[in-house]
Model the fold of this input.
Amino acid sequence: MGLWFVNFALTVIEKPKGVTYYMLVVTYGIAIIISLVTDLTVKGVVKTYWGAFVDPGVLFVPIVMALVSLPVSFACFVLVKKARTINDIRQKMPLLLIVFGTFLTLSIGMVTDMIMPFVLGRVDVIRLSSSTTVIVSICAYLSVIRYNFLSMGLDQVAEDLFKYAQEGIILISGDRYITQMNDAAKKLFNLTQVSPKAWFISDILDDYCDDLDYQNHEIRVNPKGETRYLLLSQFIVRESNLVLGKLIMLRDITERKLAEESLKKSEERHRLLVETMNDGLVVLDETGVITYVNERFSEMLGYSRTEMTGRPMIIFLDQTNRIIYEERMAGGDRRGYGSFEITWTLKNDLRISTIISPMPIHDDEGRFKGSFAVITDITERKLAEDALRRAHDELELRVAARTAELAQANQHLQELDRMKSEFLSSVSHELRTPLTSILGFTKLIRKDFLNLFFPMAKGEAKIERKANAISENLEIIVREGERLTRLINDVLDLAKIESGRVVWRDSTFPVADFVYQAAQAVSGQFLTRPDLTLSVVVGEDLPYLKADRDRLEQVLINLLNNAAKFTNKGQVAVEAAAIPDGWIKVPVRDTGVGIHPGDLEKIFDQFHQVARTDTLLDKPQGTGLGLAICRHIIDHYKGRIWAESVPDQGSVFTFVLPGSSARQPATPNLTR
Done:
């Protein structure tokens, strides 16, 4: 029992077994040996309680004392010491209750079972050691029931760790909602006065992607205009192999990052100043010998740095310029020289004109230690000034002539563009009428063929094969005719937009109206595809839009159709949210095949379709005009549309539009 209680105490204080524990084990071993020896020594004598009234049996009193009191007293001492370090009464009281019950049980048992029989010399003394153990049970029961012993302590420790941790901690659910955020994390995002629960993690981390494995990933956030740099680590929270969410740890490294950037900028400035400056730089000692030249000055004179370093600078000047140099550099007290013009002799005997700006170098005691000079090549400037004067009059004449040519060319291009639009419109109208007749009669022929003639071919293998071929050919005519009709309609639509003949029926309406209407229009594509879902999320308190609602629905339907075509499984999601300055942002995301970065701008060109034969063998058919029409519509309302994509992971098509001053009410989210 004593050793069990010691184990319990060491477990509570989370301390491994040490020397004291093993000394107690040795004490127990010695006590057992003494007990056995005593029992064997006393033969033929009836022993009373523990042999206390038999002469050899008197050894049992100290044995029992050591056997029971030493380990129990040690355990009580450990628990009391632990309780003194705890300030929370709910954690301290369970330990004190157990210590009190144990000590009371031990005291009563020692008095009634050992001390009183030995003092009174009687064997009929009432012994209470066994019955008093109920006191320990009662104290343990109170500590567990009243104070939630052990489990309460661990919960409290976890709560305190989450609450007072120096690093920011965020718990998010499986659907990316923030469920908990400690004070340190709120401080990082300036959310101390706001409850971020039920927010998306993307509301505070713009570039967050839950598919990535973040381990000390450096990010930059800008809460309320204050830039902060953070280290982000992400851990998956599981229970029985079920992913419950993720835990995000954030460490503020702003001060370190700013210091690093400041040092880096300082070093970069010095390096750029010395090594990549457009002017030459030379450093001289007190005797006028070159100790350093930058790359630019070496290029100016045509000598290498090795050839110039360690030689007097005047050897690179002719006699006339040496006199100028020595007069300006050797005169006065070297407090300053001023800039002057000088001509250098190059390695290939050519000459260049420069402006040299020297400055003296002094040590801390004011002694002259040399000088440095910045040399600016003005050779080309002088030549350019002469050439500029000669070319000025000629340039004016050429500009005037060229301006007239450009004006004429521009007028001609405008006329060609108008003719192109009219030609496309005329040809499209002329094609649509006979194409409508072809489609109508083809469908009628196929219907009659299937209803009347096809049944007659049953039983005749050769005729039946021929009938199937005819039916398939008619189906191809219908399908390709419908595709040609879509192409003609898109060409007409684009021609109207480019020629300015489109009638824009603008009205003011909530964002949710056209978003949900577009989603409803394409929902049929998702109902028959169980591996593909459509998600629609419209933010709250959005500005109204003032535009042609049908045209904006046309844009969104086109983007949703494209996303569905190029996504085999996963999700297509459309969102609508307010962004600063009263604008509205609508991204359409998919988990499809993606687009190569080099094609992200080309896809908005007319008749351009991206080929992905490596991952999409059956490329969806289209006219190649849908995205071009979308861009024209968005541009008409002073908005912007663009695409982002990661090949084999998905794409995001986003457009932004200016909103009106009105606000729309909150609308529910929709997921299909």
Notes: The CA atoms of residues 236 and 242 lie 10 Å apart. Confidence is low (pLDDT under 50) at residues 42-57, 612-620, 664-672.
